[in-house]
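Dear colleague,

Thank you for sharing your sequence with our group. We've completed the structure prediction you requested, and as agreed, I am returning the results in plain text so they can be pasted directly into your records. Please verify that the sequence below matches your submission; if there's any discrepancy, let me know and we will rerun it promptly.
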Amino acid sequence: AAQTTVLCGPGAVISGPGGNPAPGGSPAPGGVKPAHGSRPRLAIRKTGPARAASRQSVSYLIRVTNLGTVTAVGVVVRDRIPAGFTLSGPSGGATLSAGSLTWRIGNLRAGASRTVRARLRIGGDTSGRRCDVGSASAGNADTVRATACTRIVRRSQPGAVLPAVTG
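Please find the predicted structure tokens below.
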């Protein structure tokens, strides 16, 4: 019996008998071969503190979910660190490059979710509203983005002498 599977979109493949690639086709990334019209659909949610103080460590959580009906292949989560922030500690296997954290999640089954944490420290001179932007992408799904904004209040310098009020 002949089997034909068509993956539409990025990584398109047409497979022949037994799931072997048809002439001119190539295996789908990760061996995923959904039916025509099926594809993953990523959703992302980003949370963090609404308010924080300078020199404080904060965490932002990024949750990516595959709302589609097939596996998302090669999922990557990125988090652009806002100006005035630095990495404050381990962030669950992320790599840091050019001001962004990157987590290589791998494949994400239909209906599955994965949460990563960015641990950041706010600089002493940082104040005002800062937004942290995260994104998730896959080899066979569109890129999605989410933003969490924090209002930063500048803390006075530790040990600083405040002027006396007299009179």
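Summary note from our side: Confidence is low (pLDDT under 50) at residues 1-34.

Kind regards,
the structure core
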